[in-house]
C-alpha cells in the first residue's frame, strides 16, 4: 500500500518542529476565511468558509484509521458508503437574488443533499437510504425523511464539482426537504466538525443567538476529491464547510447603519485557529474605492482583487495575526439587478387543478445564455405534461433538451429537466398545469391544512462574465472564489434556486372521523353489550306453581284421558 | 404590545396622517412607493384598466384605470411560502386616508419586529373592489372577468389571511366587522372571534351590521334586536355582493374581513393608536398560526358577534321547506302512475293519457330561452335602446331587463294534447327542478336559497290550472323573483332603520338591479345568472301551469 506508507512517514515526522503543523503541511491543510460584503439593500452578508484538504485515499476499500484535521465521522461515512462527492446544505430563509445578488455558495430553503457514489457501489438506492440515515444522525436533522418519493436522479443539472469524469447519473442521488427547519441543533454538530471547534479562529463568531437573529442563514458541507497541484497527478480530499448569513441592520433597531463584528456576532476575533495555515477576513470594498461610503477601522493596507461570479471585486484583507474590530457606515444604494434570477408560484383557485409558473429573468442587455431547469414535483401533484409551455418574449421557446420522468404514485416524484436558451433582456415563463390528488387518510401530515411543500426548482447556468474568469486552479485563490470549477474565461457557473411552494390539497375535515369514531364506539359498546348479554344468559321458563283447584282438575283430566290444562 | 407607546413613533404617525389629510387628486402612487420604500419594504406596483359593460351611476365609473401599490415585508428566515395581507382602499378624495396612514404606520412598526414568520403584504388598492380584483387576479394569475392588468413582480407565497381597513376619520367610536363576501361566502368564524376577542381585550366597542351587542338576551326587545341583526346578515349574504374589499379574497380560500371605523356621536372615542394595537394583535395571532383557519365554522349566521347560529340549526328549516316540494312531487307521481290503471277499460285512453316526459320539453325550452334572453339582451342591446329611447345606458339596461322579464309572462302557452295529464307531468318536473335548484343554492349561499324557498315553495305547491285564475296570477306574480327583490329592498331599508318612500324605493330597486348585473360582470357574482338562467325559467313553468288550457 503505497498510500499507507506515505501516511506513516508523515506520522513519524518530528513533533518538536517549530511549526505546530509543520510536518503535516504537505499532507493536511486547513484554511479559514470570512468574507463580509455590504449589500446594496443595506444588509450585511457574511460568508464563512473553512477548508480542510487531506491527501489521502478513501476509495477502493482503503481503511483510513488515523485522523487529525479531517473529522473522523465524515471520513468513515465516505469510506463506508463509497461516496465520491457529498454536498449537504441546511438553509433557513430564502436568498433574495433580486436584492442581494448572487451568493458565493447557493442553497435552497430547507435541507438539500446530493451525493455522487463511486462506480463500485452495486445497490445505490440501499446505500443512499443508509447514508441519509447516518447523516441524519451526524447533523441532527430529519434527513431520514428522504425516501424514494423525494429522491431524484437529475441527468444534467448536478455534475460532479471535483475531479473525475464519471458522469453516469445512475450514481447520483439528489433530494431536498423544503420543510426542514434549521436551528441550533444543526449548528452545533456542524461546528464540531471544525478542527478548532468553536474555541478559536473565525468559528468563535458563530454564536447561535446572533446567527439565528438574521434574515438568512445557511450552512453547508461539501466533500469532493480535488487536484493537489496544477498538473493534477494525484488527488486529495477537500472538506469545505460554509456558513452564509445575512444580517438585517434595519431590524436590529439601530438608527445608524453602523456595523462591527461585535454588533453582528456579539464576539470579537482575538486569534486565528492555531491549526489553520491561513485565516483571513475579506471585506468587499469594490463599491467604496475612495472610502466615501464607509470607512474601515482599523484600516488595512492589504488589498486583494479576485474575480468572483463574473465580476472583479476588490477586498480589504485582514490576516488574523493582529486583533481586528471593523466598523463601517453603509448607506443604502441602488438595487443591483442580478443577471439571472428566478421566481416560481402557483396560480389558480380551488382545490382541483392549478398551474405552476416558473419565471426566469435574463437581465443581460445583449447576450443570451443557456440554463438548465430542474423541476421536481411530488407525486400528489399530477403534472399534465402536455400543457408544458415555455414562452419568452411572447414566443414559444423550444427547449433543446428535455428529460422527463413521470411520477409513480407513492413511489417517486416527477422529474423535469430542460435545457433552455434565455434570450437577452427577457423573461422566460415555464408553465405546467397539475391536478391535486386526494391522499389516503393516513397519508396526510398532522397539519394538513398548512399545505404541502414542493421543493425549489434549480436553475443551473453559465452566465456571461464581464471580466475574464481565471481558469487555472491554484491554491492561492481565496476560498470564496474557488468553489465552482471554471472551465472557460467568458462565463461563470451560477446556480439559482426558486422559492419552494406551499400547495393546499383537498383535505377532509378530520374532526368528522373523530366524531364518527366516537359515535361508532358508543354504538358498538351498547349494541355489543346487550347482544353479548342476550347470547350468554341462559333463559329458563319459570313454571308458576299451579293452584290447588287446577292440580285436582288435572288429575281428574288425566284419569279421563284428556290433555291437562 | 408596544406599538406607538414611543412618543416619537406616535408623532411620526400623526405627521403622516396630517400629510394624508391634505387633499390629494387621485392616488399618490409615487409618494406611496417612496414612503413604503423608506419603511424598508419591497415595493411593487400594478396597473390595471377595465371598461365596465355599462356606466355605474352609483360610483360614477365607466372606464376605470388605476394603479395598486403594495409593499412586502419579508419575514426573516422564512422561505416565502406564506403571507398575510393588510389592505386599505385609497379612494379619490379623502375618504380613507386615515386607513392608508395607519397602514403605513403599521408597516413601519412591523418592519422593526423580529417575530414575523409569514411575509406581510401592505396593499393600497385604487378603485376599491376593481383594484382589489385586479390585484388578486394578478397574484393568482387567473382571469375570471376579462380585466386588463399588468403582471405582479413580487409575491409572498400562499396568502393565509387578509384584513381590509376602512377608516373615515382619525378617531372612531366603534369598529364594525364585515364578513359577507362574494356569492355569500363567509370567512372562517375564528376570524370574527379573533376580532371580537381583541376588541374585548383592548376595550373598543365592536359591532356587526352596525349593531351593538345587547346583554339582555332573554327580554323580547333584546331578542328582537338579535333577530334584526341576523336578518340584516341574511339579506346581505343573499345579495351575493362583496360588502367590503375583503369579499374577493374568499374565492381564493383566503380568510378575510373588512374592519370599518365608525364615528358616531358617542362621547367615548378611540384613536388610531388603539386601532393599530388591535391590528397588531390580530396580525401577531395570524402570524403564529401553523395551519390556515379551518377549525371553526364556515357556514354560520351571526345574531351578534359573540353568538352564532350554526349550519346544523338553520339547515333543517330549509330542509322542511324543501320537503314540501318533494312530498308534492311524490303525490303527483303516485297520481300519474295510478292514472293508467284507472283508464285501463278505455281502449284508446291508454296511449293518449300517458304523456311522455318529452311532452314537457316545449315549455322547458321556451322558458329557458326567455331566461337566456333576460341574461343576454339587456347588456347586448343597450346601444339600440339608448338610440331609440331617451334614457341613459344604465337605465336602458335595467329597463330592458324588466321588459324582458315582463314579456316572459305573456309568451304563448303550450297547447297540449293531454289536457289532464300534461300539467301534472310538467308540474312534477318543475317541482323536482325547483327542489334541486333550491337545494344547491342553499348549500352554496344559504340565505339566498332560503329567501327563494320562502317565496317560491308556497306558489309551487299551490298552483294548478284549477285554482281561481286572477287571484292566483296576482299571488304568483307577487311571489316571483323580481317582486321578491323589490320586497327585499324595502325590508332591508326597514332593517337598517332607514325606511324609504315608494318612489325612492323604486329608484333604489332599479339601481340594485344594475348593481347586481355589474357585480356579475366585474367580480363574477353568480346571483344574476342564477336568477336569470335558472330561477326565473323555473318560475315561468309554474306560471305556465296556472294558465294551462
Biggest beta-sheet profile of chain B: 9 strands, mixed
How many strands appear in the DSSP assignment of chain A?
A: 25
Beta-strand content bin of chain B: 15-25%
SS-derived structural category of chain B = alpha/beta
Textual characterization of the structure:
The complex is a heterodimer of chains A (565) and B (549). Chain A is α+β, with helices and mostly antiparallel strands. Chain A has helices at residues 2-11, 72-81, 97-100, 124-139, 184-192, 208-211, 261-265, 511-536, 548-560, and strands spanning 28-38, 44-54, 83-92, 110-117, 151-152, 172-177, 216-227, 235-247, 258-260, 278-284, 303-308, 311-319, 327-329, 340-347, 353-362, 369-377, 381-392, 395-396, 401-405, 414-422, 426-436, 452-454, 458-464, 491-497, 501-503. The radius of gyration of chain A is 33 Å and the shape is elongated. Chain B is α/β, with parallel strands linked by helices and 549 residues long. Helices cover 53% and strands 16% of the residues of chain B. Chain B has helices at residues 7-21, 29-38, 97-111, 128-140, 189-202, 220-239, 272-287, 311-342, 349-352, 361-380, 382-388, 393-409, 422-444, 446-462, 469-478, 481-495, 502-523, 527-546, and strands at 42-56, 61-73, 82-90, 119-126, 148-149, 158-166, 171-172, 174-178, 205-208, 255-262, 270-271, 300-304, 307-310. Chain B has a nine-stranded mixed β-sheet, with helices on both faces. In chain B, helix 6 (220-239) packs across helix 14 (446-462), helix 12 packs across helix 17 and helix 16 (481-495) packs across helix 17 (502-523).
Amino acid at each position: 500500500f503505497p498510500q499507507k506508507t506515505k501516511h506513516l512517514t508523515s506520522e513519524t515526522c518530528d513533533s518538536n518542529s517549530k511549526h505546530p503543523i509543520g510536518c503535516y503541511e504537505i499532507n493536511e491543510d486547513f484554511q479559514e476565511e470570512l468574507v463580509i460584503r455590504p449589500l446594496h439593500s443595506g444588509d450585511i452578508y457574511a460568508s464563512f468558509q473553512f477548508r480542510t484538504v487531506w491527501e489521502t485515499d478513501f476509495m477502493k476499500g482503503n481503511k483510513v484509521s488515523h485522523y487529525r484535521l479531517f473529522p473522523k465521522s465524515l471520513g468513515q461515512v465516505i469510506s463506508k458508503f463509497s461516496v465520491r462527492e457529498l454536498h449537504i446544505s441546511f438553509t433557513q430563509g430564502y436568498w433574495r437574488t433580486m436584492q442581494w445578488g448572487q451568493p458565493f455558495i447557493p442553497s435552497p430553503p430547507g435541507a438539500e443533499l446530493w451525493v455522487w457514489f463511486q462506480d463500485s457501489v452495486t445497490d445505490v438506492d440501499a446505500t443512499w437510504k443508509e447514508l441519509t440515515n447516518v447523516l441524519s444522525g451526524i447533523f441532527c436533522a430529519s434527513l431520514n425523511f428522504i425516501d424514494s418519493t423525494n429522491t431524484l436522479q437529475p441527468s444534467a443539472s448536478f455534475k460532479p464539482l471535483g475531479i473525475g469524469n464519471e458522469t453516469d447519473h445512475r450514481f447520483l442521488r439528489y433530494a431536498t426537504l423544503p420543510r426542514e427547519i434549521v436551528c441550533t441543533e444543526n449548528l452545533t454538530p456542524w461546528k464540531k466538525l471544525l478542527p478548532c471547534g468553536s474555541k478559536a479562529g473565525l468559528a468563535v463568531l458563530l454564536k447561535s443567538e446572533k446567527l439565528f437573529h438574521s434574515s438568512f442563514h445557511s450552512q453547508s458541507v461539501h466533500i469532493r476529491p480535488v487536484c493537489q497541484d496544477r498538473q493534477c497527478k494525484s488527488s486529495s480530499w477537500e472538506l469545505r464547510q460554509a456558513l452564509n448569513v445575512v444580517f438585517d441592520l434595519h431590524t436590529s433597531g439601530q438608527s445608524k447603519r453602523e456595523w462591527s463584528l461585535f454588533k453582528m456576532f456579539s464576539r470579537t476575533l482575538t486569534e486565528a485557529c492555531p491549526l489553520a495555515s491561513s485565516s483571513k477576513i475579506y471585506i468587499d470594498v469594490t463599491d467604496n474605492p475612495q472610502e466615501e461610503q464607509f470607512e474601515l477601522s482599523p484600516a488595512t493596507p492589504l488589498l486583494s482583487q479576485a474575480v468572483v461570479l463574473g465580476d472583479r471585486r476588490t477586498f480589504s484583507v485582514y490576516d488574523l495575526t493582529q486583533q481586528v474590530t471593523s466598523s463601517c457606515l453603509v448607506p443604502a444604494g441602488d438595487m443591483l439587478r442580478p443577471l439571472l434570477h428566478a421566481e416560481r408560484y402557483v396560480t389558480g383557485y380551488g382545490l382541483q387543478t392549478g398551474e405552476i409558473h416558473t419565471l426566469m429573468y435574463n437581465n443581460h442587455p445583449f447576450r443570451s445564455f443557456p440554463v438548465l431547469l430542474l423541476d421536481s414535483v411530488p407525486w400528489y401533484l399530477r403534472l399534465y405534461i402536455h400543457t408544458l409551455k415555455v414562452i419568452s418574449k411572447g414566443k414559444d421557446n423550444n427547449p433543446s433538451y428535455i428529460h422527463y420522468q413521470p411520477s409513480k404514485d407513492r413511489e417517486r416524484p416527477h422529474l423535469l429537466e430542460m435545457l433552455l436558451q434565455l434570450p437577452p433582456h427577457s423573461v422566460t415563463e415555464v408553465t405546467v398545469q397539475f391536478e391535486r390528488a386526494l391522499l389516503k387518510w393516513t397519508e396526510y401530515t398532522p397539519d394538513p391544512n398548512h399545505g404541502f411543500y414542493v421543493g425549489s426548482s434549480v436553475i443551473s447556468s453559465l452566465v456571461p462574465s464581464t471580466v475574464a474568469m481565471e481558469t487555472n486552479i491554484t491554491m492561492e485563490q481565496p476560498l470564496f472564489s474557488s468553489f465552482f470549477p471554471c472551465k472557460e474565461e467568458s462565463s461563470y457557473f451560477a446556480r439559482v434556486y426558486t422559492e419552494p411552494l406551499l400547495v393546499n390539497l383537498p383535505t377532509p375535515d378530520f374532526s368528522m372521523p373523530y366524531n364518527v369514531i366516537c359515535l361508532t364506539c358508543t354504538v358498538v359498546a351498547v349494541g355489543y353489550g346487550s347482544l353479548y348479554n342476550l347470547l350468554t344468559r341462559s333463559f329458563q321458563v319459570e313454571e308458576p306453581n299451579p293452584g290447588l283447584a287446577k292440580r285436582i282438575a288435572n288429575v281428574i283430566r288425566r284419569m279421563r284421558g284428556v290433555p291437562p290444562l | 404590545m408596544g406599538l406607538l407607546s414611543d412618543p416619537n413613533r406616535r408623532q411620526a404617525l400623526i405627521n403622516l396622517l396630517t400629510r394624508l389629510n391634505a387633499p390629494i387628486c387621485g392616488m399618490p402612487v409615487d409618494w406611496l412607493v417612496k414612503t413604503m420604500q423608506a419603511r424598508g419594504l419591497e415595493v411593487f406596483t400594478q396597473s390595471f384598466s377595465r371598461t365596465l359593460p355599462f356606466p355605474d351611476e352609483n360610483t360614477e365609473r365607466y372606464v376605470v384605470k388605476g394603479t395598486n401599490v403594495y409593499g412586502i415585508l419579508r419575514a426573516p428566515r422564512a422561505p416565502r411560502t406564506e403571507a398575510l395581507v393588510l389592505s386599505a382602499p385609497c379612494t379619490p378624495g379623502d375618504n380613507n386616508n386615515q386607513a392608508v396612514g395607519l397602514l403605513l404606520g403599521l408597516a413601519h412598526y412591523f418592519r422593526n419586529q423580529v417575530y414575523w414568520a409569514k411575509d406581510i403584504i401592505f396593499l393600497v388598492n385604487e378603485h376599491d373592489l376593481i383594484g382589489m380584483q385586479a390585484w388578486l387576479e394578478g397574484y393568482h394569475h387567473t382571469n375570471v372577468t376579462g380585466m386588463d392588468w399588468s403582471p405582479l413582480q413580487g409575491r409572498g407565497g400562499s396568502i393565509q389571511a387578509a384584513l381590509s381597513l376602512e377608516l373615515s376619520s382619525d378617531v372612531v367610536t366603534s369598529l364594525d366587522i364585515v364578513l359577507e363576501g362574494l356569492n355569500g361566502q363567509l370567512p372562517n368564524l375564528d376570524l370574527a372571534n379573533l376580532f371580537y376577542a381583541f376588541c374585548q381585550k383592548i376595550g373598543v366597542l365592536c359591532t356587526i351590521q352596525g349593531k351593538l351587542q345587547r346583554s339582555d338576551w332573554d327580554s323580547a326587545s333584546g331578542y328582537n334586536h338579535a333577530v334584526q341583526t341576523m336578518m340584516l346578515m341574511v339579506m346581505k349574504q343573499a345579495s351575493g355582493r362583496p360588502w367590503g374589499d375583503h369579499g374577493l379574497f374568499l374565492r381564493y380560500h383566503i380568510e378575510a374581513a373588512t374592519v370599518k371605523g365608525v364615528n358616531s356621536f358617542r362621547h367615548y372615542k378611540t384613536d388610531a393608536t388603539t386601532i393599530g394595537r388591535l391590528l397588531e394583535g390580530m396580525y401577531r395571532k395570524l402570524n403564529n398560526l401553523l395551519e390556515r383557519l379551518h377549525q371553526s365554522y364556515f357556514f354560520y349566521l351571526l345574531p351578534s358577534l359573540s353568538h352564532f347560529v350554526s349550519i346544523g340549526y338553520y339547515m333543517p328549516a330549509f330542509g322542511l321547506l324543501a320537503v314540501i316540494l318533494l312530498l308534492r312531487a311524490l303525490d303527483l307521481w303516485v297520481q300519474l302512475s295510478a292514472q293508467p290503471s284507472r283508464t285501463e277499460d278505455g281502449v284508446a285512453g291508454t296511449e293518449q293519457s300517458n304523456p311522455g316526459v318529452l311532452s314537457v320539453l316545449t315549455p322547458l325550452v321556451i322558458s329557458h330561452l326567455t331566461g337566456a334572453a333576460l341574461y343576454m339582451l339587456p347588456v347586448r342591446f343597450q346601444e339600440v335602446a339608448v338610440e331609440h329611447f331617451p334614457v341613459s345606458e344604465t337605465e336602458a339596461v335595467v329597463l330592458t331587463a324588466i321588459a324582458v322579464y315582463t314579456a316572459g309572462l305573456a309568451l304563448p302557452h303550450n297547447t297540449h294534447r293531454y289536457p289532464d295529464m300534461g300539467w301534472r307531468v310538467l308540474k312534477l318536473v318543475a317541482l323536482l327542478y325547483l327542489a334541486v335548484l333550491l337545494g344547491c343554492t342553499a348549500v352554496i349561499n344559504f340565505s339566498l336559497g332560503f329567501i327563494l324557498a320562502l317565496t317560491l315553495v308556497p306558489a309551487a305547491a299551490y298552483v294548478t290550472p284549477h285554482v281561481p285564475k286572477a287571484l292566483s296570477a296576482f299571488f304568483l306574480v307577487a311571489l316571483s323573483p323580481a317582486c321578491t327583490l323589490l320586497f327585499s329592498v324595502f325590508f332591508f331599508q326597514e332593517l337598517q332603520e332607514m325606511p324609504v318612500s315608494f318612489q325612492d324605493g323604486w329608484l333604489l330597486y332599479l339601481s340594485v338591479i344594475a348593481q347586481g348585473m355589474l357585480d356579475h360582470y366585474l367580480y363574477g357574482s353568480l346571483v344574476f345568472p342564477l336568477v336569470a338562467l335558472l330561477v326565473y325559467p323555473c318560475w315561468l313553468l309554474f306560471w305556465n301551469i296556472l294558465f294551462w288550457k
